[in-house]
Write a structure and sequence with these properties.
This protein is mainly alpha-helical. Helix content is 55%, strand content 9%.
């Protein structure tokens, strides 16, 4: 478990917020029954929220613009850059889509988002 935290919580670049969920909410999300019933049961969940900075939003916006470009080299570079975000590619592309009203960008971003969602896997790679 510590290896997972080390890799994904501390070695992945970018700001994030870590916090503990109160036991009441933990119990609502993950009900648990233990037999025999213990005298006391204390649980919590560690929650991680990634933050998208204004600087990162600007990068995502520029990548989405390039993705919608008529230049195939720009499209390929933008696709590669957006997919390089690994498991963050889906929320990052979704955020870029939420920031644009340009129809070409929306179409290009939606197509890439569909590709990402179709590739989704259960376990992250070691590099993610």
């Amino acid at each position: 478990m510590l290896d997972t935290w080390q890799r994904s919580y501390f070695l992945t670049p970018g700001p994030r917020v870590l916090y503990l969920l109160p036991q009441r909410q933990t119990d609502e999300i993950l009900p648990l029954q233990v037999q025999p019933t213990p005298e006391q049961l204390v649980r919590t969940l560690l929650v991680r929220s990634e933050l998208i900075t204004p600087e990162r939003e600007a990068v995502l916006s520029a990548q989405l613009t390039a993705l919608a470009s008529a230049n195939t080299a720009d499209q390929a570079a933008a696709t590669s850059a957006l997919l390089a975000w690994g498991r963050f590619a889906e929320p990052f592309v979704a955020r870029a889509l939420a920031m644009t009203e340009n129809p070409q960008e929306r179409a290009a971003g939606a197509a890439l988002l569909e590709t990402i969602r179709n590739r989704k896997r259960w376990a992250p790679l070691a590099a993610e």
